[in-house]
Amino acid sequence: MPRRPVAVFAIAPWAFDGVFPADLLTRLRELADIDPATTFTSLDGQPEALAEADILLSGWGCPRIDAGVLAAAPRLRAVVHAAGTVKALVDPVVFERGVIVSSAAEANAVPVADYTMAMLVLGAKQAFSRAKRYAAAVEGTPRDWLSGEGTGLHDCTVGVIGASRIGRLVLRRLRSYDVRVLLYDPYVTDAEASDLGVQQVSMDELCRRSDLVTVHAPALPETRHILDGRRLDLLPDGAVVVNTARGSLIDTEALTRACASGRISAVLDVTDPEPLPPGHPLFTLPNVMITPHLAGAQGRELRRLGEFAVAEVSRLLSGAPLLGRVEPEHLAYIA
């Protein structure tokens, strides 16, 4: 009788139930032997379960998968990551061993793109600064019913930095709005930009022309502070910067100065450092909205990651191509 494949979980307890609710565990049991009571976030003592594992179902809290893990898991065929990026999770030795790696980054990109669009709409309305002014109105004086002149997303120019997985979803969503879209991505050709329905421009031109800028590039040495002081100064007065990618893509000190002047606004789901130290001026500026890295899958959205992972396991075991497969040559360039 053929041996059934064994799948082992490496995911933090706080995320497990959301990512793998009962019905998804039932579907997994039809594909492989699993033990939902055994999940680990540390390799101390090299868990016995790894010795039989064919598939590692990883998620937030999974330890780095390196030579030590491979030594403890001699049968390992695949790592199926039920979360976003695997950049910091997977050591290159995993690929050298021939282990297949898949990520649910495609599924995690959906809520990030949705969050980005919400922030572009609200940012263009100056909703955050106007709400703070409204709340701070002195009792007995007229509330801040500003006319909103010069606000709103309609007829704006939106600059998108990076045609990444999330960036492309944002570009697709922007088609529903009456906006002009500029793109900076050195890896996208003019023909590809045309297919995406955007105009490919230089980074400086994007900054000069954009009413709103949204950042979707990976964190690489060459993208560090891609929005530095000089480029922030190129932005038109009243521009809004939205960052749901990585904090290091923006020079925090330069952004603080630009926002403190009141010339531009920012919506930041990521910062550099992350989190910002208590009392940082960005927290108190009325034209800056900071959220705690929540754009990705949260709460009910976690299920989408588990659905993707279970479907990947099914594809893996049936010999079908994996939709989230990560190739080793891409590891250095993903977010």
From TrEMBL:
GO CC terms, sorted: cytosol
Protein name, per record: Hydroxyacid dehydrogenase
Upper lineage: Bacteria, Bacillati, Actinomycetota, Actinomycetes, Streptosporangiales
GO molecular function: glyoxylate reductase (NADPH) activity; hydroxypyruvate reductase [NAD(P)H] activity; NAD binding
D-isomer specific 2-hydroxyacid dehydrogenase NAD-binding domain boundaries: 144-295
InterPro entries, alphabetized: D-isomer_2-hydroxyacid_DH, D-isomer_DH_CS, D-isomer_DH_NAD-bd, NAD(P)-bd_dom_sf
Keywords: NAD, Oxidoreductase
Metal-binding keyword on record: no
Domain of life where this protein originates: Bacteria
Keyword Chaperone appears in the UniProt entry: no
TM ranges: none
